[in-house]
Write a structure and sequence with these properties.
The chain contains 15 helices and 26 strands. The longest helix has 26 residues. With 528 residues, the protein is α/β, with parallel strands linked by helices. The strands form 5 sheets. Strands 1, 2, 8, 9, 10, 11, 17 and 18 form an 8-stranded mixed β-sheet that branches. An 8-stranded mixed β-sheet has the order 6-5-13-14-15-12-16-19, with helices on both faces. It has a 5-stranded mixed β-sheet with strand order 25-24-22-23-26, sandwiched between helices. It is globular and about 70 Å long.
Length: 528
């Protein structure tokens, strides 16, 4: 076959998940072609919220500064009763674990345009618009992707791997033989995006109206853009006048300067594909999971998929790791996605009244729980749990042990000072593994760093109040080994001399351990 029609990776779908996956692969030196049936960005808003973990992923993709210019930090979530009285308030910090506001509002078309602009600057990536994928097949030579440009004759690309980022109606999901697992949530809602200069009462966060007759969600997206979501009743016909009536509680002037940018009906569902991979064909984003929107994690989950898979696929394609490393994509991401979907489903049932006779009891329990001291602060913390135990996440069975506390969690990302300059931690680590150590690294840690090509980061100059030093002490660790996605891979316990699980992950990553040469670079950091 011609080298022209073979590429390392074909990505089906140029939404945020597909383009972010391409950018992350490019950072690891992997070429990709993105096939998208539409010629341009879909112009209407859909996703509007991102958490601080996703902001960190966008940083890894090289677009954080551009995204910061269009994002708007949100104060958190409020629960309101049917008369719009505050039941509870769950604040979100402007400084989350990952170094960014815990919740940011944005306009999806703007995000997609800046992602495509970044893609155009990467020589490793190509975006082919107007190319609709019609079939995906696999054999010993790889995967063959058939597509049509503007309805023409079929063309073909051969790839070493295919990433299906083609949404809920995914053709790629059919190609891997996946079926939906129904997590038992289905409600019909209307989503209304409005542009207006009129005065709108908002608190710069998300309002969830817990009215069993008409549950609703409201949020400000940008300077003059707002979103309302209302659960539909049977036979609802929401014309313009009815829309104005529904939003009247938030504004005294629903007439005049009032433009409905989009009004769409959705059926919110909770589903997970029963398999996310067949051979070298993978599912990401809505092709792999669907979530109700009540905790704003739909797009976030898809970007987590891309971040988890990209570095692993790069290592395998570059023959630095074996095929078994790819098995950890589904084993790590699927339980995490299921957890977040169940959280969204539970929030939906509790806040909107649910769909059964126990709904009133659930609403009462929510109100009671929110009056418990410290409860709203606890709920307002990071939604994202640690990864489940697996080949790359080994936890100790001993309660309170360093491996139990830190393995599978994210390393925090403070601002640090290097050579007099102020940067974020990940800008120092770049796209490599990292060894974060509280003092001089023992020879065993140097050997691990050498085998993985990891940077060694010393934090012993941070002082008692330093974020990274305090995190290590709180986790009872002298050092941690970080994966390229900044998840803790292994722990050197306080007072120990070596990482504890090297024998488990080393064969999977095909590392070679040899002593680090004298004078191997160690980067001292100082928190800001």
């Amino acid at each position: 076959m011609s080298a022209v029609n073979r590429v390392p990776v074909v990505i089906v779908g140029a939404g945020p998940v597909g383009v972010t996956a391409a950018l992350l692969l490019a950072r690891h030196g992997v070429r990709a072609v993105v096939l998208e049936r539409h010629q341009d960005v879909y112009p209407l808003p859909r996703a509007v919220a991102a958490d601080d973990e996703v902001r960190r992923i966008l940083q890894s993709a090289g677009v954080q500064e551009e995204f910061a210019a269009l994002a708007r930090p949100a104060r958190g979530l409020r629960l309101l009763d049917a008369r719009h009285r505050v039941i509870a308030e769950f604040p979100r910090s402007p400084h989350g674990l990952h170094g960014f506001p815990q919740t940011s509002m944005f306009d999806q078309p703007e995000l997609e345009r800046l992602l495509r602009d970044a893609l155009a600057r990467r020589p490793e990536c190509e975006l082919w618009g107007g190319a609709e994928v019609v079939a995906i097949e696999q054999n010993a030579d790889g995967a063959r992707v058939a597509f049509r440009r503007d309805g023409g004759e079929p063309e073909y690309l051969w790839a070493d791997a295919v990433l299906g980022c083609d949404g809920a109606g995914s053709l790629t999901r059919d190609a891997v033989g996946a079926a939906w697992e129904d997590l038992r949530f289905e409600e019909r809602w209307t989503v209304i995006d409005v542009r207006t200069r009129a005065d709108v009462r908002c608190w710069e966060g998300v309002d969830q109206v817990c009215d069993p007759r008409r549950p609703a969600t409201f949020m400000r997206i940008s300077e003059d853009r707002y979103r309302w979501e209302f659960r539909l009743r049977d036979g609802d016909a929401l014309d313009t006048e009815r829309v104005r009536e529904l939003i009247a509680p938030w504004t005294d002037a629903p007439h005049g300067d009032f433009e409905v940018v989009r009004q769409a009906r959705y059926t919110f569902r909770a589903r997970v594909a029963d398999r996310w991979r067949r051979g070298r064909v993978f599912l990401l984003g809505d092709a792999a999971h669907l979530t109700p929107p009540f905790v704003g994690q739909g797009l976030c989950a898809g970007l987590r998929d891309a971040h988890n898979l990209a570095w692993k696929l790069a290592r395998v394609l570059q023959r630095r790791s074996g095929e078994a490393l790819l098995d950890t994509y589904e084993s790590e991401r699927k339980p995490h996605a299921r957890h977040m979907i169940r959280l969204a489903r539970a929030m939906g049932w509790a806040m909107t009244g649910g769909q059964d006779r126990a709904a009133a009891l659930r609403r009462a329990l929510v109100g009671t729980a929110c009056r418990i001291p410290g409860m709203t602060a606890m709920v307002g913390r990071d939604f994202s749990p640690a990864l489940v135990p697996g080949p790359l996440v080994r936890r100790s069975r001993r309660p309170g042990g360093a491996r139990r506390l830190l393995a599978g969690t994210y390393c925090p990302q403070p601002w640090v000072t290097v050579d007099g300059g102020r940067v974020r931690l990940d800008d120092v680590l770049e796209d490599s593994f990292g060894v974060l150590t509280a003092g001089p690294p023992p020879p065993s840690a140097r050997a691990v760093a050498e085998g993985l090509g990891a940077r060694i980061i010393r934090t012993d100059g941070l002082g008692d109040d330093g974020t990274l030093g305090a995190w290590l002490r709180g986790g009872r660790a002298d050092a941690v080994l970080l994966r390229p996605d900044r998840v803790v891979l292994d722990v050197l316990p306080a007072g120990g001399s070596a990482f504890t699980q090297t024998a488990d992950w080393a064969p999977l990553l095909c590392t070679t351990h040899r002593p680090a040469p004298p004078g191997a670079p160690i980067v001292p950091l100082h928190d800001q």
